Amino acid sequence: MKIAILGTGMVGKTIASRLADLGNDVTIGTRNIEKTLSTDEKDLNGKSSFKEWIDEHSNIKVDTFSNAASNAEIIFNCTSGMISINALNLAGLDNLAGKLLIDIANPLDFSNGMPPSLNPANTDSLGEQIQKAFPETKVVKTLNTMNAYLMVDPSKLKGDHNVFLCGNDSEAKKTTKTILNSFGWKDDQIIDLGDITNARGTEMLLPIWLRLWNALGTPEFNFHIQKN
Amino acid sequence: MKIAILGTGMVGKTIASRLADLGNDVTIGTRNIEKTLSTDEKDLNGKSSFKEWIDEHSNIKVDTFSNAASNAEIIFNCTSGMISINALNLAGLDNLAGKLLIDIANPLDFSNGMPPSLNPANTDSLGEQIQKAFPETKVVKTLNTMNAYLMVDPSKLKGDHNVFLCGNDSEAKKTTKTILNSFGWKDDQIIDLGDITNARGTEMLLPIWLRLWNALGTPEFNFHIQKN
Q1: Do the Cβ atoms of A201 and B220 come within 8 Å?
Q2: What's the farthest any 2 CA atoms get from each other in chain A?
Q3: At what angle do helices B84-91 and B126-133 cross, to 10 degrees?
């Protein structure tokens, strides 16, 4: 499939790399190609700069938000949540219309220091705001409740754990499930919560997720819904 | 131990009954004893009225919020979250001072219909509001992330699952862990998140908890933090 990944951070790179390795035609979209390729900044894990990373991934193209979205059948929003609407506007209303947009972002607001709060939260969510701003786009919220390396390879955790999914379009959710399956998620690990308003619930997992990272001393954990 | 349970709903009754069966000296506190004993209202599960229930539990006393708190060493807040501060004020600042208060309530606001929102949320929590209003009381937030019958008997779920705990006083958390142990929680199931600000994270689990109840068709599930 032709897939655009919006965002050049750790999540975007991890998703792009996995999708490309699975045989998809992947383009990473960015605000400013020249700047993205020239920055020397290491990522959060101290890994190579974007330029070094993309040179090692010859199966992934780089383009503007707009071109990447325009040429894609499916778009992943892997931008920082607080600037997602802006990035998606740059990708373009028409370029997103009628397409599946898989939203992985969390609206973490670091402007008042640590720990971040959510903006919006409680009675609204980023997933809903995106669906409202792009009514012709089929927004599915998923994968936003775990570390990037688990998103694309759930077998990294030995025990059982879950991924949540929500959205208003059932065909779009079916396609999203196929992509999750290709990452290694089994059907019984995927919990369909319902419509896009459920993005509130999954985004509101972030405050405890961030504290658990601290309490457990590792981001290598995930939520598992235990039932009989 | 001499324990006061504030609140006569399903959570209060479930906790009171279990603590009394474990040999504790338990008093349920209520706003208006006469009204509580005279109401014919069944609980959410269609079970017996409070009067019928208390008649079957001769090992549990009923008293005012104030008397119950005054005579207790440990107080459980099992009132509805939106009226908890009011109920605790009726229990009395002095009657709560220096004591362990285990806060199980969630600030679910149903005033705008279903699903409820949280009030407060995100940058504040009920747990923190209680600690701020009762600075001499040792507030520990726990058990608020699951169905009442799992709180007092975690073995009801076959697989592994977790209970979260947070608060500012380490001795108070140690005592709370002992009570959780007596309910059947093993040490490695109890996750200490840190100080009382972590109540934000656990209270913000409620939106997805409520939607999971709907998606799974049962409240008989719990969060399990899966790690390697």
Answers
A1: no
A2: 53
A3: 30
Give B142-173 pLDDT, tens digit per residue: 999 999 999 999 999 999 999 999 999 999 99
Q: What is the rounded (10 degree) CA torsion for A206, A211, A212, A215?
A: 170
Q: How many CB atoms lie within 10 A of CB A32?
A: 11
Q: CA geometry: angle at A202 spanning B123 and A214, to 5°? A: 60
> In angstroms, rounded to a whole number, what is the distance separating the alpha carbons of residues A103 and A111?
22
Distance CA B159, CA B124 (A): 33
pLDDT of B124 above 80? yes
Residues of A in contact with B112 (CB under 8 A): 123
Cβ–Cβ of B200/A207 closer than 8 Å?
yes
CA B85 to chain centre: 14
Asked if the C-beta of B155 comes within 8 angstroms of chain A's C-beta atoms, the answer is: no
| B118 touches A: beta carbon within 8 Å | yes
Rounded to whole angstroms, what are the CA distances from B103 to A5, B106, B146, B202, B207?
Answer: 44, 9, 13, 12, 18
Indicate the pTM of the whole model.
0.96
Percent of chain B clearing pLDDT 70 (strictly above)? 98
Q: Is A40's pLDDT higher than 90? A: no
Question: Rounded to whole angstroms, how far apart are CA atoms A228 and B159?
Answer: 7
Q: What angle do CA A54, A57, A61 make, to 5 degrees?
A: 70
Here the ipTM equals 0.95
**Chain B positions in Cβ-Cβ contact with residue A122 (cut-off 8 Å):** 117-118, 121-122, 207
Question: Residue B206 class from Cβ within 10 Å (0-12 exposed, 13-18 middle, 19+ buried)?
Answer: buried
Spatial CA neighbour of A137 closest among A166, A174, A100, A88: A100
Chain A neighbors of B214, CB-CB under 8 A: 194
Q: What is the largest CA-CA distance in chain B?
A: 53
Looking at the partner chain, which of B117, B198, B207 has a beta carbon nearest the beta carbon of A211? B198
**Cα A50 from Cα A39, distance rounded (Å):** 7
Confidence of residue B44 (pLDDT cuts 50, 70, 90): low
Peptide bond preceding B116 in cis form (omega within 30 of 0): no
Identity of the residue in B207, B220, B228 whose CB atom sits nearest the CB atom of A204: B207
User: For residues A16 and A28, is the Cβ–Cβ distance under 8 A?
Assistant: yes
